[in-house]
Design a protein that fits this description.
Blueprint: H1 14-24, E1 29-31, E2 37-39, E3 60-62, H2 66-75, E4 84-86, E5 89-95, E6 101-107
Parallel strand pairs: 3-6
Antiparallel strand pairs: 1-2, 4-5, 5-6
């Protein structure tokens, strides 16, 4: 049946943002033709939150140490927002070369990707 998810990020500078995923995050990719790079993502989770509106979706990447990630991005000249401590995780927003923001957080919640206690 379903074997994966395909996420689309819209960008004012898609080429620069593709280079970020390729060169800064070092994500494996395939060239779908004409420079359209499709990147492999780490394992994912889906959460369904209540809302007054439909068709609003968000993408966050997860990391083990958001403070270390912010330092690593700073060393590569990539801007990050201050870390925001929430009950569910510690989050920053990375500014992509195309100007968009991408949330990255260190989860504090249980995850189906990790056994309890790890």
């Amino acid at each position: 049946m379903i074997h994966g998810a395909h996420v689309i990020l819209y960008s004012k500078d898609a080429e620069a943002d593709r280079a970020f995923f390729r060169d800064v995050l070092s994500y494996p990719f395939a060239d779908a033709g004409h420079g359209w790079l499709i990147f492999a993502l780490p394992p994912a989770e889906v959460a369904v939150h209540p809302s007054d509106a439909n068709d609003t979706h968000e993408l966050y990447l997860m990391c083990d140490d958001v403070h270390a990630l912010v330092e690593q991005m700073k060393g590569k000249g990539i801007a990050c927002s201050p870390i925001d401590e929430q009950r569910w995780g510690s989050i920053t927003r990375v500014t992509l070369p195309g100007g968009g923001k991408l949330g990255i957080y260190q989860p504090k919640h249980a995850s189906p990707l990790r056994p309890a206690g790890s």
